[in-house]
Amino acid sequence: MINKKSREEIKLMRQAGNIVALVHKEMAHVIEPGISTLELDKIAYDIIKKNKAIPTFLGYCGYPNSICASINEEVVHGIPNENRILKEGDIVSIDVGATFRGLVGDGAWTYPVGKVSDECLHLMEITKNALFAGIEKMIPDAKLENVSAAIEDVALAGKVGIVRQYGGHGVGREMHEDPFLFNYRTNSNVIIKKNCAIAIEPMLNLGCDEVHTLEDGWTVITDDKKPSAHFEHTVVASEDGPLIMTELL
What we know:
Layout: H1 7-30, H2 37-50, E1 54-55, E2 67-71, E3 74-76, E4 91-100, E5 103-112, H3 118-136, H4 145-157, E6 161-162, E7 168-170, E8 177-181, E9 197-200, E10 203-205, E11 211-213, E12 220-222, E13 228-230, E14 233-238, E15 241-244
Helix pairs in contact: 1-2, 3-4
């Protein structure tokens, strides 16, 4: 069931989303060659707790950390580790969730580490463009399929792979709610309800579409070991148009 959010819930989700945005603001400052992903995790944890919120990911289905930090061919769910040191030319996707007074904000961004290749810059730009193309279609009473189609069209035009096993999702009182949002067309007839909230999150690859999970049970990587990018915003479909929850207030 797709849950419509009350005015108060949207207000709290905006607060949660602001905390997520504060984490990403800091990530943009501190991500550089030589920093470990565990250090990034500690920074995010401190920001979330300082703002009187709970790290949504920590303990979720046994997940051990506050953020996901996925490097290069890692698509999603990369586990922070003191031995995972970022180096020049890497790209790293940071996924963050914060729960504020029972409501969740969820957002991801892919960052360059120092100077990266033109191919990786292209991949990040296409993935970010796909996110915002999808956001534009978050209109009440429209088909959710319009969001999927907008993401797919940008990906196809950019000649990049589309991760098909993972996608966006409803969000609110829980991190994962209905509906599931595919990043490509599926002929779905699901309708976007007024004031529903969805985490829109294209995951696009420099190579093939196919991915698999490593033995740790979490980390998802591309089958061809080529880089992947991940951009995500939590968005509410309001009568005034799409409202991005995970931007700075």
